[in-house]
Amino acid sequence: MSALPRSYNPFAEDEEEDVAPAGPGGAGGADRQRYLEQEVLRRSAATADSTTRSLSLLYESERIGVAASEELVRQGEALKRTEQMVDKMDQDLKTSQRHINSIKSVWGGLVNYFKAKPPESKPEQNGAPEYYANSRLKEAMMCSKEQESKYQESHPNLRKLDNSDNDFNKADLVSSVQRDAYPKNQQLRAYHQKIDTNLDEMSSGLSRLKSLALGLQTEIEEQDDMLDRLTKKVETLDVNIKNTDRKVRQL
């Protein structure tokens, strides 16, 4: 068995084979780098498009929340108008009971003469009841309505033609401090800036949605109390109507 020389390297041939084709190997490395750059750009573009779609859905959810708030305010106005009508019916019923007592006996007429008249409520001007939503809901609705233009711009059917050059032009307007935080590649930097902008808008939109939801909750609770109060008034009015009808039949 022949002994191997001390300077023998069993991996020398493999290293020589790898290093020898310097030309093709260098080209393969450049292709690999270009592929990775294109893959990074593709993923960045996909992420930017994903955040844009999410932002569009957020604006649409906010628009639906504003529409629901407006409908809830109209419902509150209807409840307020109904409550005023019930109060007016109750007042008219008390007046009818006074007249019935006057008809039934002379004593009842004397009692009604010296008895103080019930206070009369002033009619609403133009027949429109005054109803105001809670301040939290009003502020949330005003803040969300200011984003209507952004919703139209982000909606797929209402979206304006978007020139990709605008993103690249915006990328040149950032300060030097902000530019250092982004990649040096202009196209990749534009994608990163667009993603950051969309994320900031999404954060603000979620905050507005939260305020809108809290305002809706407060308004619903107030209208629930109004419904309970209205239910009790209607029940009392129903009893008084039956009593008045029975007195009229006894005349």
How would you sum up this structure, described in words?
By secondary structure, the chain is mainly alpha-helical. It has eight helices and no strands. It has helices at 12-19, 22-104, 106-114, 135-145, 148-154, 164-171, 176-180, 186-249. The chain is rod-shaped. Mean pLDDT is 76; it is low at 11-24, 123-128 and 160-177.
From the alpha carbons, calculate the radius of gyration and give it in angstroms: 39 Å
How many helices does DSSP assign? 8
Shape: rod-shaped
Q: Please report which band the strand proportion falls in: under 5%, 5-15%, 15-25%, 25-35%, 35-45% or over 45%.
A: under 5%
> pLDDT average, as an integer?
76
Q: What is the helical fraction, as a range of percent?
A: over 70%
User: Low-confidence spans: pLDDT under 50, at least 5 residues?
Assistant: 11-24, 123-128, 160-177
The main sheet comes to:
none
- Report how far the terminal alpha carbons are from each other: 140 Å
- How many E-type strands? 0
Order of helices and strands: HHHHHHHH
Query: Structural class from helices and strands?
Result: mainly alpha
